[in-house]
Amino acid sequence: MNYNSTRNSSVAVSAAQAIAQGISKEGGLFVPGQLPRYSYEDLNALKELDYVGRAQRILSDFLTDFTPEEIEESVRKAYAPEKFGGDNPAPLTLLQNNDKNMYLMELWHGPTCAFKDMALQLLPHLLTKSLKKTYAGKTAVILVATSGDTGKAALEGFKDVDGTKILVFYPEDGVSPMQKRQMNTQEGNNVSVCAIEGNFDDAQTGVKKIFTNPEIATLLEQHNMLFSSANSINWGRLLPQIVYYFSAYCDLMNTGEMDHEGEEINIVVPTGNFGNILAAYYAKEMGLPVHKLICASNSNNVLTDFIRTGTYDKNRSFYTTISPSMDILVSSNLERLLYHLTGRDDKKVSEWMKQLSETGKYTVDEQVKAQIQDLFYSGYCDDQGTEQTIKMLYDTENYLCDTHTAVAVHVYHQYVEETGDNQTPTVIASTASPYKFAASVLEALTGEKNEWDEFSMVEELSAISSTGIPQPIAQLKEKAQRFQQVCSTSEMSKVVLEMLQIQ
User: Fold this and answer.
1) Quick one: which of 362, 331, 364 has its CA closest to 205?
2) What is the CA 6 to chain-centroid distance, rounded?
């Protein structure tokens, strides 16, 4: 299977090339030339497999230049039971005390307690194999902009991986204390971390500029290096996310919840960068029976407004919220959706992206707008609603959830109230452990704000809820902080070159 660029359809590269390169040279994102289709018989076959088997089957349809042995090895190592606490890394939890058949798909049982592990434990295996196929002997320099979870997950995934170096940029005041601690204590000889003065969008824009800077690219070439990405702009990061939506449906088939052909589910995803819900869109287009894709935003509700109006406008106030991984105003993965919905019209997509870059906004045509509104429902939830939902879930379901999952649950309730659809079984992506956001979760439960250190709050949350502290978080207390550098956005390229020790 070949992959095309969203900004130049004539570009056609292999899966290995797309993964190794990360982004097309003109700034477009790689998308598959065609999508495989799965029948009801295919789903019946998938449900008989474990998660590893399902992942192998789906990945093999996209990674056609990889051998079955390469895919099997990558998947088995990525989803080893010791990394995810069991054979199913994405278990479903049914919330019993409601009439909505609501399942939380817990994507946070991996080494960093966030959903990014589901992709970033696999990506290093795919990337190293891709490099051998396409750029043998070169070192891949992984640049990451993060709003919190991707950074740690990428650092953990690429730690001491041969042939790679990784540098993560995060907004100094835009991540939770626990997310910051996770990144700044990261072990590994090939890792670096730097905070920036600004928000996530500033970090993301800075990384994209470095990626497409020809002078820096030449310098890297001279030192036998090339840039790659661990953000969801990299197809190798997005592809593994498709798997868990299929796996969730298969699990529901096995429980009897889905018991006849074509029976649909809703999928709810809390998102800022649009990647996680885009993976659900791909699953639907591949044949997964999905009624509605529900896009949940926090107060940075640029996606909600876009889906409802057809106008994407990032010219608005930026809010630092208690769901910081969603504090994003430039949703880079939306570009892929637009490419598909325009019938792969690279010129139209390029023009919209140019407008976004130059004016901060664009408006899609009526045909694309109608398609988006047919596929998606959108809503948003502010911090107060987030806190209320955390407490409601704990009081009524005895379920402890993080701030991002709470946003998704809140928006799902909005959807039910607006549409009356409380009959369609619904899978909600639960994207992080509540212990990564202990201060906010604790305040939601107790109604009290405190100034304790993050580990005292973690211990108090455990005591109040009678739930165990995840080992990756408990272990952080004893780790020394390695990285404390802060730079301006204008200094990001300098930081990269210093890290690589090239000028």
Assistant:
1) 331
2) 20
Q: Which helix (H) or strand (E) holds 339?
A: helix 334-341
Q: Using the predicted structure, report yes or no on whether residue 99 has a pLDDT greater than 90.
A: no
**Does a structural domain hold residue 176?**
no
| Tokens at 193, concatenated | 């971390």
**CA dihedral for 493, 499, 500, 502, sign (positive or negative):** positive
- Options 25, 77, 83, 116, the catalytic residue: 116
Encode pLDDT of 150-189 as tens digits.
889 999 999 999 899 999 999 999 898 899 999 999 999 9
pTM attached to this predicted model: 0.94
- On whether the CB atoms of residues 292 and 376 are closer than 8 A, the answer is yes
| 100 confidence band (pLDDT: 50, 70, 90) | low
What CATH number does residue 102 fall under?
Answer: 3.40.50.1100
Task: For 400-495, list the strands marked E by DSSP.
Answer: 426-430, 486-487
* pLDDT per position as a tens digit, 282-292: 999 999 999 99
Please tell me whether residue 430 adopts helix, strand or coil conformation. Answer: strand
Share of the chain above pLDDT 90, in %: 88
CA distances from 223 to 280, 496, 501 (A): 39, 14, 10
Burial 169-200 (b: 16+ CB within 10 A, else e): bbbeebbbebbbbbbbbbeeebbbbbbbebbb
Question: Could you list the residue range(s) of the whole structural domain that residue 110 is in?
Answer: 88-115+236-437
DSSP 480: P
Active site residue 25: no
Range name among 95-99, 111-115, 302-306, 334-338 with the lowest pLDDT average: 95-99
User: Could you give the 3-state DSSP secondary structure of residue 112?
Assistant: coil
Sequence-ordered list of residues with C-beta below 8 angstroms from that of 255, at least 6 positions apart, any chain? none
**Residue 336 domain flag:** yes
At residue 208, the pLDDT reads 86
Would you say residue 288 lies in a domain?
yes
Total Cβ atoms within 10 A of residue 423: 11
Taking residue 218's Cβ as centre, other Cβ atoms within 10 Å add up to: 9
Q: Is residue 459 part of a domain?
A: no
Question: What tokens does 333 get?
Answer: 């993965």
The predicted-structure confidence for 49-58, as pLDDT tens digits, reads as follows 999 999 999 9
Structural domains in the chain (count): 1
Phi-psi region of 186 (alpha: psi -120 to 50; beta: other; left: phi over 0): beta
Decide: 55 and 243 in contact? Cβ < 8 Å. yes
